[in-house]
Amino acid sequence: MTKAKVTKGKRIGMTGDEAVANAAAVINPDVVAAYPITPQTIIVEHFSDFVHDGEVDTEFVCVESEHSAMSACVGASATGARVFTASASQGVALMFEILFIASASRLPIVMSVANRALSGPINIHGELTDQTVCRDTGWISLFSESAQEAYDNTFLAFKIGEHPDVSLPVMFGLDGFILTHALEGVFPLDRKFSKDFLPEREMVHPTIPGNPVSSGLLALPNYYMEVKYQQELAMDAARKVIPKAFEEFGEKTGRYYKSVEGYQMEDAETALVTMGALSGTTKFVVDKLRKEGEKVGMIKVKTYRPFPADDLAKALKDVDAVGVIDRDLTFGAPGAALYTDLKTSLYDYKDRPQVFGYIAGIGGRDVLVKDYEYIYKQVLKNKGAEKAVPVEWIGLRK
Amino acid sequence: MVTTEELKKVRIPKAKELMRKENRLAPGHRLCAGCTAGTIARLATLVTEPDDVCIFHATGCLEVATTVYPFTSWRVPWFHNAFENVAATASGAEAAYKVMVRKGKLKKVPDIIAFAGDGGTYDIGLQSLSGALERGHDFVYICYTNGAYMNTGIQRSGGTPMYAATTTSPAGSVIPGKVQWRKDLVAIAAAHKIPYVATASPAAHRDMMTKVRRALDVDGPAFLLIDMPCPRGWRFPEELSVKIAQQAIDSCYFPIYEIYNGREYVLNPKSKAIANKPERKLPIEEYFKGQGRFRHLFRPEKRQDLIDNFQEAVDQEWEHLLKLVNM
Asked: What pTM, to 2 d.p., does this model score?
């Protein structure tokens, strides 16, 4: 019999996927509708064990596609149920249409994304583009640096999304294979914590018998704009709710998170900015460079949507130059996703650093310590440039 | 568990009783005059109880015309997601209701009806439908077929009749409308071996309402295909909608029957009467005559060859159905 891995204060070995499945089992959502896709499969497999062994009360709807997965999540969440799903890459792309409807319907569905490169060419390895392309879907978007953070994000996502001021779906990423399949020590939480941290979801207008409410109506030009504006207001509300959720989580677990996390930033002159699993290695490289006398720090962006523009401006106001490392792509743009958002966010500030963009680890390519060191050197070299320096692809075959 | 024999005995209240009920679909909606989607939705939901039904809807005429924000014509819980996914949406809701029942938050899983048109079912929604039928969710899927994408302006679908003129299968000087026969959606649904599948028509309204109630009473998924004459798309005067539906039954182009458990076929009274007295069968030409979408079969010159082709296909399908019902 499969039991959700729960101990008191003891670390347990789990892969990132296992961590998410275990967290979901502790949360015990009402409905999970999901479809398998590498590298997310372990999440749905493990969760299926929990369902079939009676560990959870969840109705698991094992659908025939990701499009139906997200559609079923919308139908389930519309009744007021707590709903979870997981996907990756092509799966998220297939859901794309319904992602917008989930957020516009203000349904706090939670989805873990086992971040994987998009086809073509087909590739199953780690890359964040499958999630960064969802930036316009109206979902709150978080990333994870470790299996522990992915575990914790499962709880945080429900906490943030279900807050009555927010009422938005939340996706959180964990880098394919690098986190999803690597074994790590994870401090688990228990049902008591879950019940306390995540009280029952309360929905204002659920689609349940006896409640004659119509939802999902046609809104023409006379009302559509107001509906969309309310989504923006909900994102604004999320900016306030997210730090509070992190704070409460920290008080209860001892693990404190921030939308923008600084590392070795006190006297840093240069900063590297990353999202997801790249952050762990970046910290290692920063320590190494510090030992060599370099005044370098790191910023990890945990919350991608709503984009923490002000927090970033504050965190970077005293540095001269920034190197943004994106493990994601957008073509024909001024740069990759994090780079362009960061640069835009800083533009109006007087004390803004110069920002240089680097694309690395695409399609699961390893990003080695020497690559980060090279990026750091490039940032120093570019510092003081009087015109925009083109974004550089790191580790390309010659 | 309701048995097949019990299901066959399910009857609906007398007309007098039904008339006393408040319509679940309120008047004042924005469907076209003569549109039978309104007729079907109103009659189908009349056999439900207001506090024990939830409606899920695919994008389509009935959806847009009944729920223009900030108005709704629905007096019962109603939810719309997208075009191709009403079966999956209803699946998720049904799963949630089951959990609520287990947790004591709900007395029973309510009657769940998913409405979709032929475009949203025959074509773009087929995968979602098949998945939901295979998984066995307890809901009723009602496909109201007007044989084209009427909401977007009369484009052909997999349910469009052969030779019908639509805006994407126009009656050209070379190609006379749609050249393919419609998809056999009823057989596809029945092939999932679900407990209940039926065809119905607003021209046999009590039969249709009885089928909706049977479909709701059955444990597991049920599928109904309901003929939905469309004055705008089929080009006929709006007062003739029910007559056109009657002709579809009489010509055997749209026979009305039930399939229990994917195997047992039962012909319903209006079609059974034709099976018993084949001389009552209406030539397909008569069905065509009243509809502008088939006008090119008569003008500028009569295309007897095409009419004969169609008649032959109808006859073959009808003969096949009679074998299935052992008549």
From this structure: 0.97
